[in-house]
Design goal:
- This protein is an alpha/beta fold.
- The protein has three domains: 155 residues, GTP1/OBG domain (Spo0b-associated Gtp-binding Protein, Chain: A, Distorted Sandwich), CATH 2.70.210; 173 residues, Rossmann fold; 67 residues, 2-Layer Sandwich (GMP Synthetase, Chain A, domain 3), CATH 3.30.300.350.
- The strands form four sheets. Strands 10-11-9-12-13-14 form a six-stranded mixed β-sheet, sandwiched between helices. It has a five-stranded mixed β-sheet with strand order 3-1-8-5-6, with no helix packed on it. A four-stranded mixed β-sheet has the order 15-16-17-18.
- Helix 4 links the parallel strand 12 and strand 13.
- It is elongated, with a radius of gyration of 29 Å.
- The chain starts with a strand and ends with a strand.
- It is an enzyme of class 3 (hydrolase).
- This is GTPase Obg.
- InterPro entries: G_OBG, GTP-bd, GTP-bd_Obg/CgtA, GTP-bd_prot_GTP1/OBG_C_sf, GTP1-OBG_CS, GTP1_OBG_dom, GTP1_OBG_dom_sf, OBG_GTPase.
- Its EC number is 3.6.5.-.
């Protein structure tokens, strides 16, 4: 079963509490404190599994909890750490906060596992609290709190090119001709139920991934049919191929079809229409030369002002297909490489313990900003993008870091260090 959306509850582990105990040995009547520290709670970790292509596993199990840390023991015994839980997801998965629908993390370009929820720290045993005044402390530190969240996992397939068109215009036949995909082909009047992906191989290793996006019919953006379920898979595609029935075998108007599909795409996400498009006028093998010229002229006249080129093809015989594919390759070459990534919109702002952010001035002209809250933010924020860097600046302002730096006397041109990163400070 193909599943591209799932709601789940995730929780990191609680930290184990520190222990209160005292040495009890022969000939040592008043031994000192020897309570051990509690174990760290387990983390919730997300990792991409290249072998997965569906979120079906998360439809059956909805709650995922990391292990809790164990309490410390006598004789300075350290409690065992809680086990981390690793949630594997397909490439292209986005993690959203369930209630707001805002993006927390996009796993599309993540090569390494990402810690999303940190486990609670282990509490210190009473051995740490002995002083010259209080030599027998009867208290220990409780374990740190867990972090919990309800999230929506959403799979947006990673494909360079999106193939769109009304049902029965020949998309499955086209995909089976140009790629290694083998979709079911028949004279269906309803849409394919799964997004089919295939790899187009061109000479010189210039291939690309193409996806047949099902369900895009009039009203799809409002959820008519299965359209709403599959429109999300078009979000990452860089180039769109509109496949139309140029021969009007079933009485369809190719111009009206393209207008209808573009209308649905615009309602769903206006940014999609800014991406390059190309029209594949299919089924020319069922047309006379005169009819071909008439239809092609009408299509070119209608969409020339939008910079959309028209290619006459036959998915059955292969006529014109190679020219279309090389044109698409040329369009892709003019665009940035790598999968399109969604910027973070939701800040995991959990209540921090024992100082979430520490600001210091270790030497003249140099300031450091550290702490678990900063470390986690850096783990899931792309500082190389404009939106990511803007999010980072708002994070510093919202948490009072900029105000604290100014109170410590920072001046323009001074260096701000966040672990391995360095920035020059400017107001």
């Amino acid at each position: 079963m193909f599943a591209d959306r799932a709601n789940i509850y995730i929780r990191s582990g609680k930290g184990g509490s520190g222990h209160v105990s005292f040495r009890r040995e022969l000939y040592v009547p008043n031994g000192g404190p020897d309570g051990g520290d509690g174990g760290r709670g387990g983390d919730v970790i997300f990792a991409v599994d290249e072998g997965m292509n569906t979120l079906a596993d998360y439809r059956h199990k909805r709650k995922y909890k990391a292990g809790d840390g164990e309490e410390g023991g006598k004789r300075r015994c350290h409690g065992a750490d809680g086990e981390d839980i690793v949630l594997k997801v397909p490439p292209g998965t986005i993690i959203k906060e369930k209630e707001t629908g805002k993006v927390i993390l996009d796993m599309s370009n993540k090569k390494e596992p990402v810690v999303l929820l940190k486990g609670g720290r282990g509490g210190k045993g009473n051995q740490h609290y002995a002083t010259a005044v209080m030599q027998a402390p009867k208290y220990a530190q409780p374990g740190g709190k867990c972090q919990e969240l309800e999230v929506t996992l959403e799979l947006k397939v990673i494909a360079d090119v999106g193939l769109v068109g009304f049902p029965n215009v020949g998309k499955s036949t086209f995909l089976s001709r140009v790629t290694n995909a083998r979709p079911k082909i028949a004279n269906y009047h309803f849409t394919t139920l799964n997004p089919n992906l295939g790899v187009v191989d061109l000479a010189g290793g210039k291939g690309f991934v193409i996806a047949d996006i099902p369900g895009i019919i009039e009203g799809a953006s409002e959820g008519v049919g299965l359209g709403f379920e599959f429109l999300r898979h078009i979000d990452r595609t860089k180039v769109m191929i509109h496949l139309v029935d140029a021969a009007s075998v079933e009485g369809r108007d190719p111009i009206a079809d393209i207008r209808a599909i573009n209308g649905e795409l615009e309602k769903y996400n206006p940014e999609i229409l800014k991406r390059p498009q190309v029209i594949a006028a299919n089924k020319i093998d069922a047309m006379t030369e005169e009819d071909r010229e008439t239809v092609l002229d009408l299509l070119k006249e209608e969409f020339a002002e939008n910079g959309i080129e028209v290619f006459p093809i036959s998915a059955v015989t292969g006529e014109g297909v190679k020219e279309l594919l090389w044109h698409v390759r040329k369009l892709l070459d003019e665009l940035p490489e790598g999968a399109m990534e969604f910027e973070q919109e939701y800040d995991l702002d959990f209540e921090e313990e024992e100082g979430g952010i520490n600001v210091a001035n270790p030497e003249e002209g140099v300031f450091t900003v550290e702490g678990p809250k900063v470390e986690r933010m850096l783990g899931y924020t792309n500082l190389e993008s404009e939106r990511g860097f803007d999010f980072f600046q708002k994070f510093l302002k919202r948490n009072g870091v900029l105000e604290e730096l100014e109170a410590m006397g920072i001046e323009e041109g001074d260096t701000v260090k966040l672990y391995d990163l360095e920035f020059d400070y400017y107001k």
